[in-house]
Protein: Pirin
Organism: Sanguibacter antarcticus
Amino acid sequence: MNGPATRTVELVAPRDVPLGGPRAMTVRRTLPSKQRSLVGPFCFVDHYGPDDVARSGGMDVAPHPHTGLQTVTWLFEGRVLHRDSVGSVQTIEPGQLNLMTAGHGISHSEEGTLEHFPDQGVMHGVQLWTALPDAHRHAAPTFEHVAHAPTVTLDGATVQVFMGSFGGVTSPARAYSPLVAAQIDIPSGATVRLPVDRDFEHAVLVDAGDLTVDGEPVAPAWLAYLAPGADEIVLESAAEPVRAVLVGGEPFGEEVLMWWNFVGRTHEEIVEARARWQDAIAGTEAGLHRYGTVPGYDGAPLPAPELPQVRLKPRGR
């Protein structure tokens, strides 16, 4: 067995980012970063909470567009109401998955406020994006809800597999690249040996607790990246239980261009995607044909920010 001594753990620090326009909530973002654009097909990792909704106001993200990606929503605590332009209206709770595949274009809103959930106490979770491979990124948009993510127990840890396969279980959610995403809950003082695909690169996001990943201490909210080449990851908790999220996949072989809520390949694609969203806000046929509308949201959609005065360039891993 080719163990953890064969590779170095690369640590990625979180940065605070406002999310959601005028009623923005603050999230901690580790991907993309200056160090790394992708882990497998995962191109975006946001981590938020635990936030007291009565104090913060909770999550209220007005309708906004996406192209060329999947949004992967996973909660530790709280509830979020998802609405989208293909007609989906779905509340998500901990242990469930909301998966939206944007394809050539979709719009959606996300709400986790006391207005919708009067007994809501805390908002706490992650949102991940996967970049769709070129063969699938122009497909029609879809939405999936997984009510019960499959679970496996390993070395005393509970692993909820919400994307891909791990430990003999497979999520029913559709993936377009070989990948894995799972919540891992580790009891205090435990050593957990995760069997992983040696052809995958992986990252471990620490939500809570003191965790060591392949011998490297990783602070809460930080991301630990591991290159392909080993068939296990060793996680060690200290005096307190640990909650973490594992993501990974085969290294993504395509360069991607991420700007705002769009994942494309060229500057021209991003310019066109932005223009069509502004058309959708204005109610023109070209914009509505691409992004539709989000029925039921009480408020205006988010306008796109101005494009930078430089040519946008794609990046690889």
